[in-house]
Amino acid sequence: MVMIGPPPVQLAASNPKKWDADWQDLLRRAHTDPDIGPGKQLRTRLGRRSVLHPDGGLKDTVLYTIRVLREGLCALQAELTREALLYFVRARFEQKWIAAAPEERGKPVLAALCDVCTSAMNLHQAREFFAVELNVAAHQKDGRLLVGYIKEIMVVENPAANPEDPIFISHPVWDVLEHGASVHEKIALKSILVLRNKLIAHVLFFVLRSFLGLDVPRIRVNKHATNKKSTLCAEQPTKLTEFLIEGFGRAGAERHVKLEREAMKELYSEPKQHCFNCQKPNNTKMRYARCKRCWDSMKRETLYCSPACQKVDWKNGHKRRPALVGFKCSIPLMYLVGRINQSPDYDYFVWTAQYPIYLLFTYKPVQAAVLGARTKALASGDRPSVAKLAHMLIFTSQHDPRARSLGVTKELIVKQLKDEYEFEEIALALDEMRARMAWDPLHRPPLLIDAGFSAGAWEEYQDTWSMVGMAEIGVVPDHPRLVEDANRGQ
User: Fold this and answer.
1) DSSP H helical ranges for 324-425
2) For residues 154 and 96, what is the distance between their CA atoms, to the nearest angstrom?
3) Coiled-coil segments, which residues (predicted)?
4) In the chain, is it the N or the C terminus that has fewer CB atoms within a 10 Å radius of its CB?
């Protein structure tokens, strides 16, 4: 007997393997049969959701619902990013997942699919749009697939905040469909795109935590309001046909068209600007001013609603905050950037097995040199800057007893910066740094040599560290739940 529709959601709870096998059979046939494939799914989507008016326009609340789903997806991806950064760095999730036996990978993926799809009917229906990404057998065979999907939807720019637009995992079949589609079909595609990525984000979140033996997140189901005051109507204005006038009256028809135009304008408008300091949205036609220093150094658009807000944020730490990296960075480096943005008063962090250790160079000329190298390393991955920064951190750890007592070692620093900047030759670079320091008559670290440290400044710095230490070094506690979770996952 050939199944002609999705398997019942109840089967996911009673017989997960049968439910998954039925889905895979349906998806295989949809991939080869044009009568069942994406084109048919799109037409079915329009009919099943009853999104159309008799006149061919979209029903009320359709765009409003899409907007709510998009906002939820943005929040979900930001939360997934924050936890993924923690578990990739502190619990070594990537290495453990890839090294796991196929059965150990397949079990949490199937459990995640069942749990997520039974939590909301629209997520269960959205599985029909995944021929590849949620294939349990594929994830059993290759652990890199799931890791790749997590990395693809990570919020790179600022993991601490929800992005204005979600990150979508594309698929060639659905990408092709949008070309030549009608306006209303494109709206259906937008709905499909959001649900596709919301389903996979929930599955990835579930697998990430369950594989490490942590509590799995519960899905919050939103009941979308249908209040007429919150209504958005259509992406393209419908004409004032006789049908509309007869159905709504001239005043009602004009109001209907006006609402559709407003919805279309909002849907296609650029993301609204927000002040970096007070988060005030820009409701004017004038663009917010951006920080020139951030734009010139890293092409980062940091916007402010007024000079007063920029001055306040500057005093609160923006002058030292690296904010965003300017190249495609590794997950460990993304985690570091998030930490520095969260605690901009510290100059660097070193991760021990128990907790993060912060370093704050209190001697201002040294701090300026360290921050200069750090900014250049974060902005471009500049190898000489990374080598000089690593050497300075090692030099500090070897000459400050507090660092040694907290478990900060040369080996730990080398491994961390090697992973953060994907710098395989860092050992050779550090040999060069040590040679330069040995050749220097004053035996200054190369970071300070290149910063123009004079003999007098070096002598003053040595006197300072003999009294108060080379830097302020201490423990920065993580969020209690995340510390407990990361330690359990190790």
Assistant:
1) 331-342, 364-380, 383-399, 401-405, 410-420
2) 19
3) none
4) N
Q: Distance between CA 18 and CA 31 in Å, rounded?
A: 20
Structural domain contains residue 325: no
End-to-end CA distance of the chain, in Å? 47
What range defines the domain where residue 199 resides?
A: 10-227
Specify whether the CB–CB gap between 460 and 364 falls below 8 A.
no
CB 74 within 8 A of CB 201: no
Q: Does any domain span residue 18?
A: yes
Q: What is the pLDDT of residue 475?
A: 84
Instruction: Report residue 349: phi and psi, to 5°.
Output: -130, 145
pTM, two decimals, is: 0.66
In the numeric block, which tokens belong to residue 320? 């030292």
Q: Which residues contact 29 (CB under 8 A, 6 or more apart)?
A: 2, 36
Q: State whether 457 and 387 are in the same domain.
A: yes
Structure tokens at 346: 């510290």
Alpha carbon separation from 347 to 104, 320, 358, 370 (Å, rounded): 40, 9, 7, 8
DSSP H or E stretch at residue 303: strand 303-304
Q: How many CB atoms lie within 10 A of CB 296?
A: 9
CA–CA gap between residue 433 and residue 446 (Å, rounded)? 6
Residue whose C-alpha is closest to residue 322's, from 270, 380, 366: 380
Q: What is the Cα Rg of the chain in Å?
A: 27
Q: 276-287, pLDDT tens digit by residue?
A: 777 677 777 677
Which of 327-331, 337-341, 376-380, 413-417 has the least mean pLDDT?
327-331
Structural domain includes residue 4: no
More confident residue, 215 or 321: 215
Q: Single out the residue of 367, 386, 366, 381 nearest to residue 433, CA to CA.
A: 386
Given the structure tokens 């029909």, which residue do they identify? Answer: 128
CB neighbour list of residue 223: distance below 8 Å, 6 or more residues apart:
none
Q: Name the one residue in this structure whose structure tokens are 């393209």.
A: 236
In a shared domain, residues 223 and 278: no
Q: Which two tokens stand for residue 213?
A: 């033996």
Domain count, the chain: 4
- Cβ atoms of residues 154 and 30 within 8 Å: no
Both 176 and 47 in a single domain? yes
Instruction: Judge contact between 116 and 202, C-beta under 8 A.
Output: yes
Partnered with residue 303 across adjacent β-strands are 290
Total count of residues recorded for the chain: 490
Mean pLDDT for the chain overall? 76
Supply 150's token pair.
């997590």
